[in-house]
Amino acid sequence: MATHAAHGEERRRIEFDKHLPVDHRLNRVYRFGAGLMGLVLIAFGILGLIDKVGFFDTRGDQVVGLNTNGALSVLSICVGLLLFVGMVIGGNFASTLNMVVGIAFILSGFLNLGLLETEYNFLAFRIQNVLFSFVFGVVLMFFGMYGRVGSALPHDNPYWRARHPDMVEAEPREAGRRDAAAGDRSLPPPGDAR
């Protein structure tokens, strides 16, 4: 029984990969989201490194309204490059990466909120950084979840099709019956000479 369920799960995953072509609209959303957000992080990190702030300087320095230090700048560049990798690979990987990194940003916001004004604030966070972390995380999660999570996904959506293979197989049969019924209604009844 467990082997059958595992086989069904593998079959769905393989079918999903086939149903999300490179030029699919959802793939473009995931790639665009990863690339745009990665670019924001890389630009922030580079601007922070240009100021030559100390690596773990807890006072930090202001860059585009956010506090930063060397560690936060390098971390921002690394995460930005990771998002660029997601943009290049695309598909399910980019979607999942966007969601995971988005959740990590939200958790980072909560963690650093607790570390504000303490000696353990190694990334030199201030309240504006915490708010940015929350907003950035939510936007990135939106890019990752777009068209993947929801109760009203259209039936041509590859995620819906992967979750409902039995309904996908039934749809062409039902469409054929509807077309046949519509064709029967358009024909005049036998013996009716119009």
Automatic annotation (TrEMBL):
Pfam families membership:
DUF4383
Recite the UniProt keywords alphabetically: Membrane, Transmembrane, Transmembrane helix
Biased segments, Basic and acidic residues type? 170-182
According to the record, the segments passing through the membrane are 29-50, 70-89, 96-115, 127-146
Which branch of life, at top level?
Bacteria
Region Disordered, residue ranges: 170-194
The protein, known as: DUF4383 domain-containing protein
User: Which organism was this protein described from?
Assistant: Streptomyces cinereospinus
